[in-house]
Amino acid sequence: MDDGPFWITGAGGLIGRYLLATASEGAPGVSTVGLTRTQLDLADFAAVRNEFRRQRPRLIIHCAAMSKSPECQANPQLAHRLNVEVTALLAELAADIPFVFFSSDLVFDGKAGNYDETAPVNPLSRYAETKALAERVVLANPRHTVIRTSLNGGTSPSGRRAFNEQIRCAWAAGQTVHLFSDEFRSPIPAQETARAIWQLVARNQAGLYHVAGSQRLSRLQIGQLLAARWPHLHPRIVPGSIREYTGAPRSPDTSLNCAKAQQCLSFPLPGLTQWLAEHPDEVF
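User: That's the sequence. What structure does it adopt?
Assistant: Structure tokens below.
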């Protein structure tokens, strides 16, 4: 078992990509296997069990998910299958090894903000419900870890996963972006999330952690930061209010308190404004 690889599910997504790209630095000397849907369909439980027995991984970082809230709202059974049942299967297989599960700040109803790990969850959307359910499954094993994160930015394989990519694509197409001034998150570059995860893995301290940016920003403020970074796209923003939104329920302020994780890290979790200023040439 000690010679088995690390598994990273969702390696074709944003955070999974960064974890895989930084694995040689974050987990030196360890073979790391990035699993995408084409390589292994996690909804095929028999195939997953067979592959687990064949490779005998010694750690699993589970990033894969049905993560778009409108799709989860429209397909609740599929969302439960992919976000809860798949997670339960992997947690079962990983009963005797470390297992890291990615959850979301959206498990909170957003009435308070600055949530720490002791705050009670109250998910409003189907997506958030599935994440909250999966959290309970994972945390039933004291070897296992739940990471709640917020909006992650960066470059994804598809070019459309990260919040910054979605906004950039809209502006590149000449579209006007509508952004709420009263919906707050804790955005963070995915490469900083990956760096934090590898350090937490190395410490092998299981449990529940919040890993997100240190700056509470509204959707509008995030858009304004990106507009200043990409003036050549002639960005257009229309401010709005979450009260005007008629889709799946949204939490107004899910900013996260990351003090617990910060105590375990060798670097400060950055705020987005600071990070963008310090990385002017970074593709973001």
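Residues 76-93 form the longest helix (18 residues).
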